[in-house]
Amino acid sequence: MRYGFTTGSCAAAAAAAACYMLLTGRKKEVMTILTPKGISYTAKLVDISINENSAACAIVKDGGDDPDITTGAHIVAEVAFLQKESKQKDKTDAEQQIIICGGKGVGRVTKPGLDQPVGEAAINHVPREMMAKEVQKMCELCGYTGKLQVTISVPEGEEIAKKTFNPRLGITGGISILGTSGIVEPMSSQALLDTIQVELRQKQAMGQQMIAVTPGNYGLDFMKEAFAYDLDRSVKCSNFIGNTIDMAAETGFCGMLLTGHIGKLVKVSGGIMNTHSKEGDCRMELLAAAALKSGGSKRQALEILEAVTTEEGIRILQEGGNLQDTMQILMEKIMFYLQKRAAGRLQIECMMYANGYGLLAESNGAEAMLKALMKNGNGWMVERGN
Hints:
By secondary structure, the protein is α/β, with parallel strands linked by helices. The chain has helices at about 5-25, 125-140, 155-160, 165-170, 190-205, 215-225, 240-250, 260-270, 285-295, 300-305, 310-320, 325-340, 365-375; strands at about 5, 30-35, 40-45, 45-50, 55-60, 75-80, 100, 105, 110, 150-155, 170, 175, 185, 210-215, 235, 255-260, 345-355, 360.
């Protein structure tokens, strides 16, 4: 299946092209950038305009074979001077200021707990970094050392956003500019399941007796930073936690370590084995229930229910002093449902974390299984603490 490119990649490529056209006065019809995934993206530019103080262009979003609601949207970047070029030619990168803003059709954050603070445009940090990097390249190419403002807009964004979770998350006025890898991988359920099955069989053929599984990219980063373990050797299960347990057991693995963000795994504490939001999104309800069980107040539970992200819920729990107890309760429920699905066919362990908070909870045998996995996945269980 054909992959596509994120709104973040579109914004970065359009910003780079607009910057080049502003600084050179020359029209550019295509722009190529390198995505964080390491895949080149060559985009056709439309709606080009160049004047003395600014330049703008758009890229039509292509989500590939993924049923992406933003496919066909125009991601527009305008780059404008904030000050004329400095005569000083030896400025450092830190002095080269690139300001990134959101225009029409790009949402605005109104509730805490999201990637960007309240009041900011809903342009996530990875797309911001991509834009700054690509615009900086153009500045260096053209020898420009002054300040620039990059404004991203999406003419269709306000209408598209009505069909997303943005209004519920407190993002008003448009869509979010997203993406961690820069590409959109097709989300055909059967294609994903087939891919998971192939990866499991490959690991098993290589002699692995147990398998590390993570839903997505955040888990990869966490395990590298916290435990120096490279989850690139693991299997990425996306939302299909239950199916992956079944396939791991049927393939013949003796053990499985599931490592994931609380935003996914909290759903498992309610018995939800497909964590896609279309299948069920009761994260805050489950978190609030666990908080009450840990001794939290009714007021705290109501605050959690009003929060838009699990990480905002964690902040509330931390301030209330019952974060650890709540996470332990959640882990006990997660393990109940994981073991129920495994049905004795393999040993299953779990680690749950959150960005900015680190490891929140782990099952009793998780550390020992991780140690065994770090022996190239070929060892079996060792005693905890050895």
